[in-house]
Design brief:
This protein folds into 2 domains: 2-41 and 288-590, Butyryl-CoA Dehydrogenase, subunit A, domain 3, CATH 1.20.140; 161-276, Butyryl-CoA Dehydrogenase, subunit A, domain 2, CATH 2.40.110.10. Helix content is 54%, strand content 9%. The protein contains 25 helices and 8 strands. Strands 1, 2, 3, 4, 5 and 6 form a 6-stranded mixed sheet that branches. A two-stranded antiparallel ribbon has the order 7-8. The longest helix is centred in the middle third of the chain and has 29 residues, at 287-315. The radius of gyration is 26 Å and the shape is flat.
Length: 646
Amino acid sequence: MISRQIFNFVKSKIPKLSSTELIALKSGNTSLDRQILQGKVSLPKQFKFENKFPANKFNELFKTFDGSKIYPNDNNNYWVDYLAKNKYFSFLINEDYGGIKLSVNELSNMLTKIASLDPALGVVAMVPNSLGPGELLTHYGTEEQKNKYLPGLADGTYVPCFGLTGPNNGSDATGNIDEGEIVLINNKPMIKVTLNKRYITLAPVANLMGIAFNLKDPNNILNKEGITVALVERSHDGLIQDTHHNPLNAGFPNGTIKGSFLIDPSQVIGGEKNIGHGWKMLMECLSAGRGISLPATANASSKCAAFGTLNYVKVREQFKMPLANMQAIQEKVNNIFFNTWIIQSSVALTNTILDNKNSPAVISAIMKQQTTERGREVLKDAMDIYGGAAICVGYNNFLEKFYRAAPIGITVEGANILTRSLIIFGQGLNKSHPYIFPILDSVLNNDNKSFNKEFSNIVRHSLNLYYQTFNLSNLLPFVPKLLEKQIIDFAALTNFVALKGGLLKRDQILSGTMADIFSNLYLALSVEYYHKQNGASKKLTDYIIERLLNNNQVLINEVIDNLGPEKYLLCHLKNKTVSRSYYNETQIFKEILNNSNIHDEIKKNIHIDNNILGDMERINKLDKSTPEYIELKNKIINVDEYNNAN
């Protein structure tokens, strides 16, 4: 009787979940996200990999790229064709089909360097190696489909894109998606589709489209319905690709897919049996775009900004002194390196997790939101330092192309406001928690026996974590807060917040704040992992982790203050935060300025040859009294000038 009452109480707390939400929860797996919510983390070993893509071919791209606009252009889409024909679109495709299947680490490194050369070129290289026809065919295609399309995708015969979003479905991807209907044509089942898709990257130049739509079968012809993913070629009768968008003049192809036409059920990826399984397929493949491609873009822009800014402040003088001597500048540089180091560290850890055959949806969401947001902060601070040169287009402006592209990464693959407020902790609580989804599943299946078992597990888990929070760092204010202790605190706090049940969907400020704490813990673990692998600077590592933990303590205090009566059980988790030490800030800047190991790590996987970044590095190796130094300095501090229009 008592267990049934508990069952009914829990059932009343569980939010209504749509079929798409349930599919998302069941897709992918967990990794450090689950360990964080268990209260104990074990970092993975570094993944060992060998580069497969020929170095000479990769270097040739950087030698030959002329900086011309990728799209629209007057060169017959030369650079899209160059990447396609040189197998840059084949990195997810197995060698059996002519691809060059790379490790996640190599793929990420390559995408980072290409994006550092030109963000638009990076986007073109990323999309075919992310969610799209290549990955979907590899995982779900029939043998006939694989044999037909994968070799052409690998050798550049096909340029792919994937159409999901439209005027009425953006971040809510399946909310009001395009529709299809199963009809009989000459007694043969066919699918009649009506498309109006927008924001589709590569659509203007693609000749193989993956399309997602909600398929209906009102006449029970096949007795199959739901989100479905199919392939159509550019020549398909009724398909329209005649308009493009212009995302902030960033210069990459992005546009529309429209039309009303018929397709054969055999064009569904995986064939007729996969009708209605499209959302599951998309959710299981989404980790590449969120976890690899967009973080690689943020990594490229942040590294270029950090590298260029550090070298610039040594050369540029104001008030008869180098900018590097001014504390106001030092503060900004510290912020730039704080966020850049976090981005490159989290990219390294996530790549290792993914290379170990994991597909953690929550970590991918953290990576998408955190790296793009922090990348924008890096660019903002770098623009402030670079001043007038940052707002004038020309050879010396190494920031403008990244600054223009930054909002795009924040918007795509699920806007960050949604990712932070609803997905990272909101869905992550159900996905990553060791016991909540099993409880949810038992309630949905009305399985009282399984419920009793899982409920007992979560009670023991919660009590054990709560007991562990009574430690010296919480009870005595002078004992430093360690990362391991804050992970326990957060895991215990999570169990209290989870009592809100379905109300969390509405309490999006709370969910977003918990997402920030969750993310910061993952990022702190990333920085710790990166230092164990590279050992560049213990001082910078400690500074970053302490700063993340201090920020988290502010947020933990805030969350507890906004809870109900349960907050009185959590008073011991509220701790004073540590005021920033101005002296320590100056010492961290000296570490950044003088530690060559830091410079070497920042320089990894960015293009600095024959450009302003290379000039900035070279000048700081010259004697200031030489004519070469003076000439190069004038070149660096110069801003391009253009003839006035007549």
